Amino acid sequence: MTLVAGLRAAAYGVPFQPVGGVHGSELAALNGWRKIPDPYGSGKEVYVIPAISPDIAVIHANEVDEHGNARVLGSPFWDHPLTRAARRVLVTAERLVSSQALAAQPELTLVPGFMVEAAAVVPRGAWPGSMHPLYEVDYPAVEAYLRDEDGALEAHLASAPETRA
Amino acid sequence: MSDWTPFSHIVVNLARQIRPGEIAFSGVNSTLAMLACLLAKRAYDFHFTYLNVAGGVEPEPRKVPHSSSDPALVAGSPAIFGNEDFYDLCARGRLDLVFLGCAQVDGAGRTNVSVIGDWRNPKVRLPGGGGAAVMMPTAKRVVTWRTEHSTRTLVEKLDFVTAAGNLQTVVTPIAVLQKREGRLALESRNPQVTLDEIIRQTGFRFDASAAQPTAPITPRERAALETLDPQGEFAAGVRA
Description:
The complex is a heterodimer. In chain A, 26% of the residues lie in helices and 26% in strands. By secondary structure, chain A is of the alpha/beta class. Chain B is globular. Chain B has helices at 6-15, 31-43, 83-91, 132-138, 195-200, 219-228, 233-236, and strands at residues 23-26, 49-52, 97-99, 104-106, 111-112, 115-117, 122-125, 141-145, 154-155, 167-171, 175-180, 183-189, 212-213. Helix content of chain B is 25%, strand content 21%.
């Protein structure tokens, strides 16, 4: 959540973001996070997290149109603050759709095309992760690449969907 | 005669921490807590609101996923209440019960999810706290668990303090500890072990004056656990 606070600071265009909690954690000293008193006099002290502005955010979407408007179905996890905090946004998507199709339900578009620098259509691009509602986590594939043996990672990369164009 | 298994003692006693009307949350890498929330839904008559890290609100998963962050935990959910939403809910004091995992816990109920050994020269670099540092001080109650009850998991001194605050309960295969006056105290023990065994396997001193044997598993709790883990796959992941 401190990571999101940093992303939010960047997205809001401010140098830091107050965040609830953190009190008593050694992560504060380790990361140099500062605590400031409420300037409005509640007496509370609040940790403030410095802005985190990624150079590039890459997100995987369900649908994208030719302008880069991208629709994400299901839980968006961190896609919203991430795309607002980053300087550049790249999108991969399961399929290309018409702009009309997105305009029919614009509230499902997570990032508008004017913010997107480039997009690629990559079916099953979230593999071995899941993509709601199209496919689930491929647990055997995850277990295979985690094996501590020579070639496990190479074999995993060689079987990725994007290698089978 | 008691027939607790390490697995059932953890899952059922985690579920027993949920109170009527509460908003309860299970996070990432928290399969046993996820099972506890699903068990409580099936075994207890009261209502509570179950939220999870996948963004599910009162989900009705068609099957129980291996991962507690699997999107299967959004199935049947009438809303998506994602990462930003549930963290904010916690920060403003509206999450009643949060299940947070840990590698080590100390007698004051602080947790380490960051590192074993020195931060700059670690023996083991752990995955990190996720939102623990934010949730532990802001949730009304936090419950943690360990599948291993030993002096290296329940420790006198943490290698690193990832999170501190409102930890209330620790559940293990052999014990349930509750915080009283700022210190963890033994509330109940698995009747298969003696108090001396628990003292020997715990790195910090604790008050055991009010300890009771853990109340037996009820038929409904047992039935719910069997529907959640019919093949015993989850139970196999928790060794004695």
